[in-house]
Amino acid sequence: MKILIVGGGMGGTILANNLARKMRNELKSGKASITMLSASDKHMYQPGLLYVAVGKMNPSEMYRDQVSLLEPSIEFKVDPVTEFNLDDNNVRAKSGTTYNYDIIVIATGSCTHAEGTPGLAEYAEQFYTEADAVKMYKKLEAFEGGKVVVAVGVPHKCPMAPLEITFMLVDYFKQRGIWDKVQLHYTYPIGRTHSLEPVAKWATPEFERLGITYETLFNMKEVNENVVMSEEGTEAEYDLLITVPAHKGMQVIEDAGLGAGGFIPTDRKRLNMEGRDNVYVLGDTTNLPISKAGSTAHFEAEALAENIASMMTIGTATRDYDGKVFCFIEAGDGKATYAMFNYQNPPDPKAPTAGIHMFKTAYNKMYWASARGLL
């Protein structure tokens, strides 16, 4: 059985490592093989970008060599896929090589699409690449006061990012001694401050306590210098605009016709591409109505690894993915909370504590063990 994993992010890496351990005998005997194709030889800890943007982490801390995170039995190649031929069970990669498979797992992730809102890429700061996060930090360092707007688009990677960057900005401005010169304003596209109602019910009083103003039902339409306009006809003036822009799937997915916006229609329990029994999808690449987060990819990968291994050994899948997601939430003032939920149970954020913040900070180091599938 040839297993091909396209994408070397959180989901693909955990899946590959779990499979390599579960199928050790099959790999050793040659009955199975695992190949991973990635666009880079480096693996980036993406949540670290949030800390880089406020000067709390050096970019060099976010990277490891991808091959160092993988079990030795996994064949790893830096050769991004350029063409999916699902009817023929193969893909073509940038090198011109054709890779055949019996099972393929597509975990290509998502990327920002600020260009979809006129003026947003030109005027707003964001933190979803190293270059953007560094640029945002330099802009913050030069900022001496005024109105800061955090404008949010959907869908976006990491459901808690809009809240986290808002609370982290409060800390940043306090530490610089200019909080009294800043007016912080937050906009969100639906009728509350977060897509998850229990999270919104926790966050809104926190905003009010800190003096953060907010406007809901604010869908960005266009951005000009010093003003962002909404589809609803309102405007928010700013001196500094920070955005969590809408995201989309990778262009190669859309070009292949696998899913609108680069998101592949995916069975919510078995994680196979709808209509395809040997094509599976992980993480941000799915169109599932759950958070696009590293933990989502993590828990999906664990379930899928069990199923692929059991299909190899007993001929059938044994586990459903239950929609499990776990997200830390930086809450400012050295505290944090978390949201844990699944398809059946909504989150219930507790009061932020210093202890949870310490655990979140520790996870910045523990991530690499998690990527190896050891946590």
Write up this protein:
It contains 10 helices and 21 strands. The chain has 375 residues and is an alpha/beta fold. It has 2 domains: 2-109 and 250-313, 3-Layer(bba) Sandwich (FAD/NAD(P)-binding domain); 113-246, FAD/NAD(P)-binding domain (3-Layer(bba) Sandwich). It has a 5-stranded parallel β-sheet with strand order 5-2-1-9-19, covered by helices on one side. Strands 13-12-11-17 form a 4-stranded parallel β-sheet, covered by helices on one side. Helix 1 (10-22) runs parallel beside helix 9 (294-313).
Overall geometric form: globular
Oligomer: single chain
Rounded radius of gyration (Å): 21 Å
Terminus-to-terminus distance: 27 Å
Superfamily (CATH H level) name of the largest domain:
FAD/NAD(P)-binding domain
CATH architectural label of the largest domain: 3-Layer(bba) Sandwich
Secondary structure class reads alpha/beta
Please list the strands of the largest sheet in the order they lie side by side: 5-2-1-9-19
Helix percentage = 25-40%
CATH fold group of the largest domain? FAD/NAD(P)-binding domain
Beta content = 25-35%
Mean pLDDT: 95
The total number of structural domains is 2
The total of helices stands at 10
Q: Tell me about the biggest sheet?
A: 5 strands, parallel
CATH class of the largest domain: Alpha Beta
* Total beta strand runs: 21
Low-confidence stretches: none
